[in-house]
Specification:
The complex is a heterodimer of chains A (416) and B (329). Chain A is mainly alpha-helical and 416 residues long. Chain A has helices spanning 2-14, 18-55, 59-78, 87-97, 146-153, 167-175, 205-229, 235-241, 244-274, 288-304, 320-327, 329-354, 359-362, 368-394, 406-409; strands spanning 131-134, 137-140, 306-308, 314-316. Chain B has 12 helices and no strands. Classes of the chains: A mainly alpha (416), B mainly alpha (329). Chains A and B meet through helix 9, helix 14 and helix 15 of A and helix 5, helix 9 and helix 12 of B.
């Protein structure tokens, strides 16, 4: 009874607060814009580091490129929360952050690691082959260009694991395969894989460098495009700010879908259940704990309307938390607590990994400590999803096409 | 007075229909979990008696049939310990099942001798699909009673029985959690509306799964059909899975919805009729331009059920679908 009365009172208060809704979705778009601009800036630093590695290959320039990649992941992972709920982002995301990949498409791999499954091109090795046949078509790959990667190789043969572009393709080229299984250790590619002349190891160093350069250039141009989508006159910004309720729905859809189906399920739980180190999101670099942590932080940012940029400046404004609190203080308190709890669990996972208990070790069969660390985050993500659903109800957004799948929004989607 | 009388009548009419969350629990979920527990216990018994492929296939098929009666209830006990994923690890896009089984067989891993030990093994080697590979794959199914593979099949069957038993036991408790929604101390469901949403989400997600995964994956595109991606292709029960799953979802619809659902019923009937006419049980017809049309129609009809149910089930219940486990990519 008390709850009903509170809810009624909240409705009376909430209904004239339309200005707040506009403010909340504007903050959301501002955080998205800042996040993609930061991702772009850090990808440009990576691009410079890659140029240096290719022109003057050495252990030092190789390490600098790896460091730049790791830094670039920090802002980018915080933008993943914009993916679901914003079709402009979701349609584009596969070029930038597709995973998991059959890396044998790109470069040499260890014989023991080729599995393929449904993939006919899991061992194509573009770097070693200047021409080949793909889905019945003869492909001239003498020159490795962004266009070749983007238009011919990416998702070749309709197989999603044929990832030719984006962060994880670059990660593979910088680190190489992690052959340590569920033991400690990341990929151990030597800098000499990029050396010239007789110093070159594993062959085709020039083509490997060309591939790395092309993939990095493409990442920069893709991020440039997305930052523009959220700028003052961008389409992604317009889509969430023109109708505030649709914008709010996009925010909550993004938070819930990333929390539950994507992160808790696909990325974290599946790896534990399969005991498979390849199920690590950043498996070559062993950076998975950070990838999960910054995903979680991105969700936290959106709800609280606050993002700390890579230069330390803060983007903040009217928050979704305030809006939900106006509708139902209990729902806001529970969701805020859940999000904080998730961040704490993710921080514990990150701390353990950084102290030397790496994510792939946690996935080993019968590793109870690792499973407990990962599942604590999974449980926290599942719990916060229920609270996100309650926030949707509290804001009266149930009738908006919510959490729709491809088949709902577009009956023909699966035939495309 | 008249208004009061009218509202009393409406209440009476509603309860007369005998449908709602209580019916979804009592008439749908609980019997389905009991049947699955019985079927998997039968599978384990069969494996103790004779673990060869030929001998085990009937009991395995019965267990799979029973699974389809509850596989869509992806909340509560099925999500606990990732049980649904363990029982039915599909799609296996990266060939994990043969790899995991090959790993066990190659080293003759003694883990199959321990029930608790086998429960720690990769889910790719467990559940109905891990077992399908052992019972039906050409390069595996010919094993004899003394072989490692026979012991592996026995371990898989025992593991499934344990999962079935745990789900049935937990659902008996979980039913109380559903029934006491909104009461003090119930932290799972804060209102009855949340239980309606849970069942309604199970219905819509189940339908989407049939259209997008069970049918959508093998359909691929017209130029590039992928019959090799059909669910339970080895055992040839791809279409049967669609049919039994549709029947279970229809049962849920009727248990859950207080009012009539004529459009939804019609859509279910159309889809079940189309499914009954598909000749290739493994959906290999997707690669034949003529036979493909029928499978495409079926997928559209299943989406039609989804849309009708939004109006006839979701709206009267006052809920929309919540998040589901397939929201990721």
């Amino acid at each position: 009874m008390t709850r009903t009365l509170t809810a009624l009172a909240a409705l009376v208060v909430a209904s004239p607060a339309l200005a707040d809704k506009a403010g909340v979705v504007t903050t959301y778009a501002d955080i998205a814009q800042a996040g993609y601009e930061d991702s772009l800036t850090s990808a440009q630093r990576l691009q410079s580091a890659v140029e240096a590695l290719i022109s003057e290959p050495s252990a030092t320039t190789h390490q600098a490129a790896k460091d730049a990649w790791l830094a670039a992941r920090v802002p980018y992972q915080q933008t993943e929360v914009f993916r679901f709920g914003n079709p402009i982002v979701d349609d584009w995301e596969g070029k930038v952050n597709a995973w998991p990949l059959d890396e044998g498409l790109i470069d040499y791999v260890d014989d023991s690691t080729v599995m393929g499954g449904e993939n006919r091109y899991a061992e194509l090795n573009v770097i070693a082959n200047e021409s080949f046949t793909l889905s019945g078509e003869e492909v001239d790959a003498a020159e490795i260009t962004p266009t070749l990667l983007e238009e011919t190789l990416h998702e070749a043969d309709g197989v999603e694991a044929n990832v030719a572009t984006g962060y994880h393709a670059i990660e593979f080229l910088l680190w190489g395969q992690d052959l340590n299984g569920t033991d400690h250790g990341a990929g151990e590619r030597a800098w000499t894989d990029f050396a010239s002349g007789e110093d070159c190891t594993n062959g085709n160093c020039d083509r490997r460098g060309a591939y790395l350069q092309a993939a990095t250039d493409l990442l920069v141009s893709d991020l440039e495009w997305m930052a523009g989508q959220w700028a003052a006159d961008g389409d992604a910004r317009a889509a969430v700010t023109e109708g505030a309720d649709a914008g709010l729905s996009a925010m909550l859809t993004g938070m819930g879908s990333l929390s539950y189906g994507e992160q808790a399920g696909e990325r974290m739980k599946l790896g534990v259940m399969l005991n498979d180190p390849e199920e690590e999101h950043d498996c070559f670099s062993d950076n998975t704990h950070n990838s999960h942590f910054y995903d979680g932080l991105g969700i936290h940012n959106v709800y609280n309307g606050r993002y700390v940029r890579i230069d330390g400046t803060v983007v903040e404004g009217d928050s979704l938390s305030d809006l939900v609190a106006e509708a139902d203080t209990d729902v806001d308190a529970a969701l805020s607590e859940d999000l904080d709890h998730t961040i704490l669990q993710m921080a514990k996972l990150k701390a353990a990994a950084e102290a030397g208990f790496s994510y792939d070790q946690m996935l080993a069969r019968g590793n109870e400590e690792g499973e407990a660390l990962i599942m604590a985050s999974v449980d926290a993500l599942v719990k916060q999803t229920r609270s996100i659903e309650r926030a949707v109800t509290a804001l009266g957004l149930n009738d908006i096409g919510f959490a729709g799948s491809d088949s709902l929004d577009d009956p023909n989607a699966v035939f495309q | 007075m008249r208004a009061l009388l009218a509202s009393t009548l409406i209440l009476a009419a509603t309860s007369a229909a005998h449908a709602g969350v209580e019916e979804a629990v009592t008439d749908h979920a609980l019997p389905a979990t009991e049947e699955f527990a019985e079927a998997t216990a039968g599978l384990a018994d069969a494996a103790e008696a004779d673990c060869t492929a030929e001998a085990l296939r009937p009991a395995w098929n019965e267990a799979f049939d029973a699974w389809l009666g509850l596989s869509h209830l992806r909340f509560g006990p099925l999500e606990e310990d990732s049980r649904a994923l363990t029982i039915a690890f599909w799609p296996d896009t990266r060939g994990m099942i043969p790899r995991a089984l090959g790993g066990l067989m190659g080293s003759e891993d003694p883990v199959i001798d321990s029930v608790d030990g086998f429960a720690e093994v990769s889910i790719a080697a467990r559940g109905l699909f891990g077992m399908e590979q052992v019972l039906y794959a050409e390069d595996m199914a010919g094993y004899d009673t003394e072989s490692y593979a026979c012991g592996l099949a026995r371990a898989q069957a025992r593991d499934l029985a344990q999962l079935g038993e745990a789900i049935a036991a937990d659902w008996a408790d979980f039913a109380e959690t559903v029934r006491t929604a909104g009461q003090d101390g119930n932290e799972t469901f804060l209102s009855e509306s949340e239980t309606k949403q849970a069942f309604y989400t199970a219905l819509t997600t189940g339908l989407e799964y049939i259209a997008d995964q069970r049918l959508g994956r093998p359909l691929g595109s017209f130029d590039d059909p992928r019959p090799d991606r059909a669910e339970a292709r080895l055992s040839g029960r791809s279409v049967r899975n669609v049919t039994l799953s549709l029947e279970a979802l229809r049962e849920l619809t009727h248990a859950l919805t207080p009012g009539e659902t004529p459009r939804t019923d019609e859509a279910f009937a159309a889809a079940l009729d189309t499914a009954s006419q598909i000749e290739d049980g493994d959906l290999s017809g997707v690669a034949d331009p003529m036979r493909r049309v029928q499978i495409e129609s079926l997928a559209q009809e299943v989406r039609g059920i989804r849309n009708a149910a939004a109006d006839e089930v979701g709206q009267p219940l006052g809920v929309s679908a919540g998040f589901n486990a397939t929201d990721g990519d």
